[in-house]
Known about the structure:
The chain has 5 helices and no strands. The chain is an all-alpha fold.
Amino acid sequence: xxxxxxCLICQKEKSEQLVHNPSSHEKLLKFVEEWAKYGDLRCFDLxxxxxxxxxxxxxxxxxxxxxxxxxxxxxxxxxxxxxxxxVYCSCQTMFYY
Length: 97
C-alpha cells in the first residue's frame, strides 16, 4: 500500500511541497495504468498498489503529489513515445524468435 502522507507518485519527501487539495486523482490513475501497460517499472509498481484504491479513498485520505512528479506522469508526449517504444520492441521480439 502506498504511504498517503508522501507524494503518491515518488513516495519520497523532497524540498518541493505537495500540491494542496489535488483534484486530478482519476486522471493520475489513468495515466499510471497506461504507463504500467507500456513497461514503466516505476508505474507498474505504483499501479499494483493503487489499482484497488478508489478515487473517493484517495480524496478522503488527502493523497497528493509533487507538481513535478504529476507533470511527468501526465505528459502525453512522453507517454506516446513510451507506447511507440513498447510496440516497436514487441514487434522486434516477435520476429526475433
